[in-house]
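Fill in residues.
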């Protein structure tokens, strides 16, 4: 009887990978999520290139055309409660795969829109919802796989995938629009998203899903091994009937028996961790490494049952702190301000005399600066001596200064220089808030912290482009809008500085640890109580 494990199980399950790959499965998931970001975020960042062609074909105003991008960017964060519900019901892997499928269908079907309002559903709602499903799942997976160490590095690697997509998609979309119009460009892009994103999305499992699949494949392999053992025994008995023990040619039976025993020993050595058996000699180290790997997979999942018992109490704890509200308000204001760069930047550059090709180069330059910043955060982010909240506050002040510079862009060279700074700050903002919320709320409720942060960001993106479009329709200029954006960045930084000042003042007055550290200590204490029993059972 042959093994009944499917080809996909042999390809994607960590249980049947070599030990060196199983111990690094969390990094395989990280790289897979980066690829998913590459194909999904590249399109959404290219919407400014579609702004002009859409406005020209459908004869719509700036606020109507910009609202398509606002709905898209808003829903890729605003639908986080739905993403959290799906993750509990169907798991992280299927949620990520469903997100990629919605992205591909949304982009492809947008090419057939006869009127602009159809794009609100296809490109705005469907595509934005698909990005949110994969985006929320990836952030939660990072908190589960990297609760304390390398979280900033892993998050930066994922965001590098999105920035690389923006860097590649901007010039490619500009060329595709010129060659095949915006409809043909969206069709080609939708097919590309599906073909490249879906296979990698199926690799994105949570530690709990990985542990369950390891156990399931372990049982299946055990049944296969028992069936194979019975078949070998029957084959040996048939041979002994043909070649009795007193036969001079019994060497054939001896050769079969010895070779089968040798193969069984090799298979048992390789599958020690799968069947749970204890072997002698060199296999003990493999079993120990498998136990350490199981601890690594389960350390962020074992408290899930305890969390479900709390129910609404955890939300009362999270939302009952003024620090959480200050952080969420700051994120909303920052996201509201960043909406100008997502939706209206190319329109502003065209208004000051930039061609479509120059605008595409500016977007690519912004993406390059963003990519470099994320690479630096991935390499050195965990070594920085400041907190994520402090980094976020400093980013707001610097971005406000660059926004003032955008008001005075009068040539292509000046625009490139200022956009380099804007791209660097955007790279910081796409990484740090998702770790800053965990600092404020605590790792015990990391998934809830990510859900709240993404939901608030979605609100900011959803309404952020409305004032910019309205001001432009009234004044035919973005100068007033840029002044508003610069002031709002400063306000968001002030809210974060208030949190930091309060924490430092309290640290001087109290000898006890901050509340967020206490929650983290409780979190790991609960984990240590349950991990040993779960690992033994596994």
């Amino acid at each position: 009887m042959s093994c009944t494990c499917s080809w996909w199980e042999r390809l994607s399950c960590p249980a049947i990978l070599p030990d060196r790959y199983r111990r690094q499965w969390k990094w395989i998931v990280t790289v897979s999520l980066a690829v998913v970001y590459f194909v999904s975020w590249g399109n959404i960042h290219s919407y400014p290139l579609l702004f002009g062609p859409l406005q020209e074909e459908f004869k719509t105003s700036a606020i109507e055309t910009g609202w398509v991008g606002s709905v898209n960017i808003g829903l890729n964060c605003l639908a986080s409660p739905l993403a959290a519900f799906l993750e509990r019901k169907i798991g992280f892997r299927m949620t990520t795969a469903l997100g990629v499928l919605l992205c591909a269908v949304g982009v492809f079907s947008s090419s057939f829109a006869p009127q602009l309002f159809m794009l609100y559903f296809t490109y705005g709602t469907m595509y934005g919802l698909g990005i949110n499903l994969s985006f929320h799942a990836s952030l939660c997976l990072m908190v589960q796989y990297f609760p304390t160490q390398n979280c900033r590095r892993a998050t930066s690697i994922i965001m590098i995938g999105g920035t690389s997509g923006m860097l590649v998609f901007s010039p490619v979309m500009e060329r595709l629009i010129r060659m095949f119009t915006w409809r043909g460009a969206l069709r080609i892009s939708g097919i590309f998203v599906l073909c490249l994103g879906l296979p990698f999305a199926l690799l994105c499992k949570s530690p709990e899903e990985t542990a369950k699949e390891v156990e399931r494949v372990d049982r299946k392999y055990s049944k296969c091994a028992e069936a194979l053992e019975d078949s070998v025994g029957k084959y040996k008995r048939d041979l002994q009937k043909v070649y009795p023990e007193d036969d001079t040619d019994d060497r054939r039976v001896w050769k079969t028996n010895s070779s089968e025993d040798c193969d069984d020993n090799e298979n048992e050595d390789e599958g020690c961790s799968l069947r749970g058996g204890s072997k002698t000699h060199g296999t003990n180290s493999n079993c120990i490494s498998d136990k350490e790997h199981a601890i690594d997979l389960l350390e962020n999942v074992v408290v899930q049952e305890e969390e479900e018992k709390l129910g609404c109490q955890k939300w009362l704890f999270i939302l009952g702190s003024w620090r959480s509200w200050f952080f969420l308000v700051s994120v909303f204001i920052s996201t509201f301000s960043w909406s100008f760069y997502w939706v209206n930047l190319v329109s502003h550059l065209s208004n000051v005399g930039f061609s479509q090709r120059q605008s595409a180069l500016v977007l690519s330059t912004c993406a390059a600066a963003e990519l470099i910043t994320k690479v630096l955060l991935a390499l050195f982010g965990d070594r920085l001596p400041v907190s994520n909240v402090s980094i976020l506050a400093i980013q707001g002040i610097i971005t406000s200064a660059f926004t003032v510079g955008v008001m005075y862009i009068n040539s292509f060279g000046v625009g490139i220089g200022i956009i380099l700074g804007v791209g660097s700050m955007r790279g910081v903002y796409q990484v740090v808030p998702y770790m800053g919320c965990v600092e404020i709320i605590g790792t015990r409720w990391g998934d809830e912290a990510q859900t709240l942060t993404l939901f608030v960001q979605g609100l900011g993106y959803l309404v952020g482009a409305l004032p910019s479009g309205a001001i432009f329709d009234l004044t035919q200029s973005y100068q007033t809008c840029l002044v508003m954006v610069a002031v709002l960045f400063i306000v968001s930084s002030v809210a974060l500085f208030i949190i930091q000042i309060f924490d430092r003042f309290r640290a001087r007055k109290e000898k006890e640890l901050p509340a967020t550290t206490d929650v983290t200590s409780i979190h790991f204490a609960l984990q240590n109580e349950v991990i040993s029993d779960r690992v033994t059972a596994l």
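Residues 210-300 form one domain.
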